[in-house]
Amino acid sequence: MPARNIITITTDFGVRDHFVGAMKGVILTINPEVNLLDISHDVASYSVVDGAFTIAQAYTYFPSETVHLVVVDPGVGGERRPILVQAGRHYFVGPDNGVFSFIYEREERVTVRHITASHYFLQPVSRTFHGRDIFSPIAAWLTKGIDAANFGEPISDYRRFANLNPKMESENLAHGIVLKADKFGNLITNFSIALFPQFVQPKAPVFQLEINGQLLTRLHNTFDEGAPGETFVIVGSSGYLEIVCNGASASRSLKAASGDDIVLTFQ
Fold first, then answer.
1. What is the pLDDT of residues 244-259, one digit of tens each?
2. Which residues partner with 8 through β-bridges?
3. 15 and 139 inside one domain
4. Where a domain ends, among 129, 155, 181?
5. Backbone Cα Rg of the chain
6. Are 8 and 39 in contact (CB under 8 A)?
């Protein structure tokens, strides 16, 4: 079995404050030999959907037995549970708030455990910083070879998002949402190519995409196919349709953000 010698970290903490550094310090105190890799600390503040999308787009590119620490936790200190997820070849540690929803949907083998073994926590446990006091120690002890079963019992009522996929009104009409607005202002939708393969066929479909009262009807293969400042649709590297603007922010020009509704119509 490959060694668990990698921990990735994904948060909405940013890098201005001490939060990420403190988490790394806790991990390295427990296991000084572990490799720490940052996926992102620029997840939109409080956006569990953004965090879910971010980790889902990155985890498969890491080796087997990698431990993924994800702290996007607006309910910290409340009733939401700390969980440890074994999914496919990977481990995930974080809050039970839906942040692993894409992973639950993608992986066939999933075991979710409610973390209750408090003797592994950093004491005293803060009510507002479980990333440091609960999640970081659990991730670190996993890399020391502690069996996942030692951290808590399996649960089946873990939280997952209900609206990951578009709602099909008919074969020609679908309702979706914006999953994420990235750094460039590109709007990543939940219209996946797996559900809408016609967008990668030689003959592009005739479609209309409506967002915030504005209509988009053009599909391009690359960003520079669009005219400067033009807003259009593209198939992104994540496998989802994206709304983009050549040389500018589609999010700003359309006044759109994560969670906004989208309607896709085929003619």
1. 999 999 999 999 998 8
2. 37, 68
3. yes
4. 155
5. 20
6. yes
Q: Which helix (H) or strand (E) holds 136?
A: helix 136-143
Of the residues 126, 155, 184, which one is the last residue of a structural domain?
155
Here the CATH number for the domain that contains residue 66 is: 3.40.50.10790
CB atoms under 10 Å from CB of 25, counted, come to 12
> What are the backbone dihedrals phi and psi of residue 56, each rounded to the nearest 5 degrees, phi first?
-65, -30
User: For residues 100 and 90, is the Cβ–Cβ distance under 8 A?
Assistant: no
Nearest Cα residue to 195 out of 220, 174, 221: 174
DSSP string, 153-212: -EES-----S-SSPEEEETTEEEEEEEEE-TT--EEEEEETTT-GGGGSSSPPPEEEEET
> Which pLDDT belongs to residue 78?
95
Whole-number Å distance between alpha carbons of 47 and 44: 5
Q: Which amino acid is present at 240?
A: Y
* Residue range 135-190, pLDDT digits in tens: 999 999 999 999 999 999 999 999 999 878 899 999 899 999 999 999 999 999 99
If we measure between CA atoms, which residue out of 192, 189, 193 comes closest to residue 210? 189
CA distance 193 to 200: 7
pLDDT of residue 204: 85
Q: Round to whole Å and give the CA distance between 223 and 245.
A: 8
In a domain, 99, yes or no: yes
CA distance 169 to 158: 28
DSSP state of 13: -
